[in-house]
Design goal:
With about 140 residues, this protein is an all-alpha fold. The chain has two domains: about 30 residues; about 100 residues, Cytochrome c-like domain (Cytochrome Bc1 Complex, Chain D, domain 2). It has five helices and no strands. Helix 4 crosses helix 5.
């Protein structure tokens, strides 16, 4: 009985480690920081507003259609999946800035003058882009 329990414990630890490695692979170089030719989501009035705000506040670093640039990463990555970086992470990054922790682009400064409503429209647009590109 003790042998079975020990095997299950070792197997559980191995599976847990494998899960951690799969989830953190993009953070250690397993995912590209730039996503070539991202697909635009189907336009709606709400998404058009989000795209306008994204283009004004985010695209210079995070690229057209969230594809990334040499200044900031793509949002079409498992790192930015809602289960890893929820919508609140976008609000915090825009309002307070963000320390570099997944990519080698350096820290993100807060975005001066951005409103909660603008961030909400940007998040809706980014999530639609992610969905259009198969992230979820």
């Amino acid at each position: 009985m003790k042998s079975i329990s020990k095997r299950l414990s070792v197997m559980g630890a191995a599976l847990g480690l494998a899960g951690i490695l799969v989830l953190t692979a993009p953070a250690i170089g397993g995912s590209k920081a730039i996503y070539d030719d991202p697909i635009e989501p189907q336009p709606t009035p709400k998404l058009n507003l989000g795209k306008m705000n994204y283009d004004a506040f985010c695209a210079s670093c995070h690229g057209k259609t969230a594809g990334g640039t040499d200044k900031g990463p793509t949002f079409i990555s498992r790192i930015y999946h809602p289960g890893h970086h929820g919508d609140g992470a976008f609000y915090l990054a825009a309002k307070r800035g963000a320390l570099a922790h997944h990519w080698p682009f350096g820290n993100m400064k807060p975005i001066a003058g951005i409103t909660d409503q603008q961030i909400a429209s940007i998040v809706a647009y980014v999530r639609a882009v992610q969905k259009a590109n198969g992230l979820f």
